[in-house]
Design brief:
Layout lengths: L19 H5 L2 E4 L5 H16 L4 H5 L5 H10 L2 E6 L3 E11 L2 E9 L8 H15 L4 E7 L6 H6 L3 E2 L7 H12 L7 E7 L11
The structure holds coenzyme A.
Length: about 200
């Protein structure tokens, strides 16, 4: 399925927001069980980024097990970014909650990094969330790792103070701390789901 931007008015004019997938020639589609081994391989390759900055425990964390990925496929909440030459080069896993879509994981194979693939996957999730009438995207991440907290800030996410966390974010933070991730500073971040363009006279 070729991604179509919602950010166009009735005359097909862009509304000042980029369609990053179109910009990069990517196709983003729902993942299938045939993608799962590739998803795991992408995760293993990207984990090495953390070894390079001394976060070996994160690099050594195994990829999500097939059973967990199968559950996301069954729920229809995982997507892959595909390149026509090589197939899947990035993926995103999402958990839906009342009014919120939580990005559980977004990963791009390092060979294809820094071309807007991660941003395009996140935009795709936003489009999906908008269709469900949700108002917010959330994620948890490392505060200071350049491709985590600072990257999401560049994509318009803000740090969400603890009093604003819905219950699922509290559980997520606790679960991740139990898993050892709190050994480095962590943050909870959120971005509003933007509304579609106004009518054709305002495009
Ligand atoms: C986070 C991630 C998905 C971004 O994917 P991407 O397709 O490279 O991101 P984009 O092309 O949309 O944006 C690139 C920006 O990300 C940041 N970034 C990505 N890789 C980086 C790196 N190795 N070092 C520093 N900054 C990096 C920079 O801000 C970069 O902008 P720049 O190229 O203008 O400097 C990817 O880096 C990744 O898979 N990382 C490992 C897994 C991970 O940490 N996932 C997030 C868990 S919360």
């Amino acid at each position: 399925m070729t991604r179509r931007s919602p950010w166009r008015n009735a005359r097909g004019q862009a509304c000042g927001l980029r369609d990053r997938a179109a910009d990069t020639g990517l196709v983003i589609r729902a993942a299938t069980t045939a993608d799962l081994e590739r998803i795991q391989a992408i995760e293993v390759a990207a984990a090495e980024l953390f070894r390079a900055i001394g976060m070996d425990a994160v690099a050594d964390d195994p990829p999500p097990p097939v059973e967990q990925l199968e559950a996301y496929v069954a729920a229809g909440t995982t997507w892959v970014a595909t390149d026509p030459e090589v197939g899947a080069i990035g993926y995103v896993l999402v958990d839906g909650h009342a009014g919120w879509s939580h990005i559980e994981q977004v990963t791009v194979h390092p060979h294809y990094a820094r071309r807007g693939v991660g941003a395009a996957l996140i935009d795709h999730v936003e489009e999906w969330a908008r269709g469900l009438g949700q108002s917010c995207l959330s994620l948890t991440t490392f505060s200071s790792v350049p491709w985590n907290g600072p990257y999401y800030e560049r994509l318009g996410f803000r740090h969400l103070p603890e009093p604003e966390w819905p219950a699922y974010l509290r559980s997520t933070v606790e679960r991740e701390a139990d898993h050892g991730l709190a050994a480095w500073p962590r943050t909870v971040m959120a971005r509003s789901v933007k509304q579609p363009c106004p009518g054709k006279n305002h495009g």
